From TrEMBL:
Keyword Transferase applies: yes
Protein name: Aminotransferase
Catalytic activity, reaction form: L-aspartate + 2-oxoglutarate = oxaloacetate + L-glutamate
Lineage of the species this protein comes from: Bacteria, Pseudomonadati, Pseudomonadota, Alphaproteobacteria, Hyphomicrobiales
GO molecular function terms attached to this record: L-aspartate:2-oxoglutarate aminotransferase activity; pyridoxal phosphate binding
Natural source organism: Allomesorhizobium camelthorni
EC supergroup of this enzyme: transferase
Cofactor(s) listed in the protein's UniProt record: pyridoxal 5'-phosphate
CDD domains assigned: AAT_like
EC number assigned by the record: 2.6.1.-
GO annotation (BP), single: amino acid metabolic process
Length: 389
């Protein structure tokens, strides 16, 4: 074939991507081994049945056609209402653009604020698609590491040091994937101050906002931030709808107007029947409370099980769908440890180093399994740690 573009070839450079252990475990599970998969971030349960019924009803009612580019009006209204709750800032429909999932919202955000060659700062550890999303825009980025000892809360001075003349944006994610850290109000205020003083955009990935345990603090609510914050959001985690691909961006209305042209050349609007089911799911909060409670109780159970483990320290792990175990006192090479755990006890977790240097020496444990399985996994981990040499 003729040569593909450098841009497409550069989004995910070939080579190791850190997911080998997950795929090896999945293959072994499919071959019949009793492997406990704690390596991915997708719910182990189906979408709420009411949401499914709403979608079937919308299909039966003939909602099969093209829709408005930024989302059908009722969907944007529902998203604006949820954004008002999520960010604590009164939000209107013209500050909302619907996208097929949070990932597409992230893509749109990066396209909207960065030109090729411009620079962004990404706080690590981060969600695996972030670097590729910047590369797809031809943008440059610097990774600012956090420290396990700080519970993976970023330090403002580290972010400030990374600012260059070409820097246009900072990307943060709280509650965080992979660490489960929930950034403190003070930390967000410090970041907001940098954005104001350096005239930067803040891209705030808040897809786990309902799974944070306590009150969610969005940097959009901080002084002077409405005009420079883009909030990435999604129904995937909060409403149990990962496979439906429905998300949105909350941004200044003038930027949303520009973003509509991006939807024109990419998605051309969302599916009508999914949009209508989403409106019902938003209006009735289908699944939201139950899902939040389920993850909180899984997190508490798993942390209770592992807290007494010798030489294992819990870091971050305050919200989202993951907990982070610091195993450096047992084994600094978390990849080696994770492979050995899979071999000996058939538990698949992600080595922290797959998410950047800050999480080296850690294990990311996904809570996407029922409590009895998490309990069994913790038991296997205890046995493995006890025997580890
Ligand atoms: N942002 C973070 C931090 C995530 O963990 C994920 C998915 O795991 C996404 C965005 C993308 O979510 P969606 O399924 O809505 O595309």
């Amino acid at each position: 074939m003729p040569k593909p573009s450098d841009r497409i070839s550069g989004i995910v450079p070939s080579g190791k991507d850190g997911w080998e252990i997950h795929f090896a475990a999945m293959n072994r599970k499919q071959a019949g081994e009793n492997i406990i998969m704690l390596s991915v971030g997708d719910h182990d349960f189906d979408s709420p049945s009411e949401t499914v019924e709403a979608c079937i009803a919308a299909l039966r009612a003939g909602h099969h056609h093209y829709t408005q580019l930024p989302g059908i009006p009722r969907l944007r209204e529902a998203m604006a209402k949820i954004s008002t709750q999520c960010t604590g800032v009164a939000t209107t429909s013209n500050e909302i653009i619907a996208t097929p999932g949070g990932q597409a919202a992230l893509y749109a955000a990066v396209q909207a604020v960065l030109d090729p060659g411009q620079h962004a700062i990404v706080v690590a550890p981060y969600y695996a698609t972030y670097p590729g999303t910047f590369r797809a825009a031809g943008a440059d980025f610097t990774v600012v590491e956090t420290r396990a000892e700080d519970g993976f809360q970023p330090r403002a001075e580290d972010i400030l040091k990374a600012v260059r003349p070409s820097t246009r944006a900072i990307l943060i994610n709280t509650p965080n994937n992979p660490t489960g850290a929930v950034y403190s109000r003070q930390c967000l205020e410090d970041i907001a101050k940098i954005c104001r003083e350096q005239d930067l955009w803040l891209l705030s990935d808040e897809v786990y906002w309902t799974l944070g345990g306590g009150e969610h603090v969005s940097p959009r609510a901080l002084p002077g931030m409405v005009e420079r914050t883009l909030v990435i959001n999604s129904m995937s985690k909060s409403h149990g709808m990962t496979g439906w691909r429905i998300g949105w961006l909350t941004a200044p209305a003038d930027l949303v107007t520009l973003l509509i042209s991006l939807n024109l050349v990419t998605t051309y609007g969302l599916p009508d029947f999914i949009s209508r089911a989403a409106v019902e799911a938003f209006d009735n909060a289908y699944g939201v409370k139950e899902i939040a409670e389920r993850y909180a109780s899984r997190r508490n159970l798993f942390l209770d099980e592992v807290r007494g483990l010798n030489n294992v320290t819990v870091r971050g792990s305050e919200g989202g769908m993951y907990v982070m175990l610091d195993i450096r006192a047992i084994e600094p090479d978390c990849e080696k440890f994770a492979w050995a755990l899979l071999e000996a006890e058939k538990v698949a977790v992600m080595p922290g180093v797959s998410f950047g240097d800050a999480a080296a020496g850690h294990l990311r444990v996904s809570l996407c399994q029922p409590e009895e399985i998490l309990k069994e996994a913790a038991g296997r981990l205890r046995r493995f740690v006890g025997a580890y040499e």
